[in-house]
Design brief:
Strand content: under 5%
Radius of gyration: 17 Å
CATH superfamily: CDP-alcohol phosphotransferase transmembrane (TM) domain
Number of strands: 0
CATH architecture: Up-down Bundle
Helix content: over 70%
Distance between the termini: 40 Å
Number of helices: 6
CATH class: Mainly Alpha
Structural class: mainly alpha
Length: about 180
């Protein structure tokens, strides 16, 4: 093992954390879920820092990192929807967006040319809002003084950002595909 493998190992550990985070949410052990979600978030920042700061980025890491992020978020949304803390329609919308983006990326990569995708600003905002919603829902279970209006407002903000970022990816990459053919 080389030092340059450390960011990828951290990312793989984050993928492994998906199961205990989901399990703790399903068992409604919200303190544990929050702690594990926090560890996953810190590991995301750490692997990114190491990859950029030391030049330890790799093609594998560029694929694994967003996969780890999506796996964690989708698992959290699925778990929270299962126990009734998030609407099922929001889970369906989040998953549908991700499926459309991944399908488009695969088609582009194999039919047009090798994909070197960078997340857009709206996509980063969408991910931030999705993370904040998971955190807020968990914190609300631990601190009931958190007003439901904040959760509802964030649900609508996530909905708008999911649709907006999904459409942005479809339009941007469709144009790029037409141009690159």
């Amino acid at each position: 093992m080389k030092r340059s493998d450390i960011p990828n190992l951290i990312t793989v550990m984050r993928i492994v954390l998906v199961v205990p985070v989901s399990w703790s949410l399903l068992r409604q052990e919200f303190g544990l879920a929050l702690a594990l979600f926090f560890v996953a978030g810190v590991s995301d920042g750490l692997d990114g820092f190491l990859a950029k700061h030391y030049g330890w980025s790799s093609r594998l890491g560029a694929l694994l990192d967003p996969l780890a992020d999506k796996a964690l978020l989708v698992a959290c949304y699925a778990s929270l929807a299962w126990i009734g803390l998030l609407p099922v329609w929001l889970l369906v919308l989040v998953v549908a967006r991700d499926v459309v983006i991944v399908a488009g990326a695969v088609v582009y990569n194999y039919r047009i040319r090798r994909l070197e995708a960078q997340p857009t600003l709206i996509s980063k905002l969408n991910t931030l809002l999705q993370i904040l919603l998971v955190l807020l829902v968990i914190v609300q279970q631990l601190a009931p003084w958190v007003d439901e209006v904040w959760v509802r407002g964030l649900i609508y903000a996530v909905t708008v950002s999911v649709v907006w970022s999904g459409l942005d990816y479809v339009v941007t990459w469709s144009r790029r595909a037409r141009h690159d053919q």
